[in-house]
Design a protein that fits this description.
Blueprint: H1 3-11, H2 13-23, H3 25-30, E1 33-37, E2 42-46, H4 61-81, E3 86-97, E4 105-109, H5 112-120, E5 128-139, E6 144-156
Antiparallel strand pairs: 1-2, 2-4, 3-6, 4-5, 5-6
């Protein structure tokens, strides 16, 4: 799949939903959606509904963490597809929760330029790099809910 088809599939509600049921069923179950995906950033939203809610009337931390990882991972995948054959793997995760998520939460990762530079410098097969990406989750009012730091490992094949 090329980067353009990948982007179109991610932004197409039904194709994304079907793909998630196949590969990441928890994302489909929680109702996470992709709002934007381009060369510099990715925005995903996790809704506040009966599937993503915990007993404390907020969004379950697992759903928030999944949305944060997805925001970084989709951006990684898009940039990789534009540059050749790479493998990618999460090698670290940490999060800071700052406010209770009682409404839809939007996660943004805007490190596309930095990641593109790293990938462009991996020229030879076997070259590898590790990069920590950040996804910031905010509610509709713009209040910070969570910041996730996802460490990705990349290797050129």
């Amino acid at each position: 799949m090329d980067a353009l088809k990948f982007k179109e599939s991610a932004l197409n509600r039904w194709k994304f939903w079907l793909g998630m049921w196949k590969d990441l069923p928890s994302v489909a179950f929680w109702g996470i959606k992709v709002k934007d995906l381009n060369d510099t950033s990715c925005v995903v939203v996790v809704p506040f509904n009966y599937r993503s809610k915990n007993p404390f009337r907020s969004i379950y931390f697992g759903a928030l963490s999944g949305a944060a990882e997805l925001a970084t991972g989709l951006l990684c995948k898009k940039l990789i597809l534009e540059r050749g054959n790479f493998s990618m793997l999460v090698t670290g995760f940490r999060a800071e929760f700052t406010k209770k998520a009682t409404s839809a939460t939007f996660f943004t990762c805007d490190q596309g330029k930095e990641l593109a530079h790293i990938l462009d410098n991996m020229i030879n097969a076997g070259d590898s790099a590790v990069y920590e990406m950040k996804a910031i989750g905010k509610n509709a009012d713009g209040a910070d809910i969570m910041t996730a730091y996802i460490q990705w490992s990349f290797k050129r094949k």
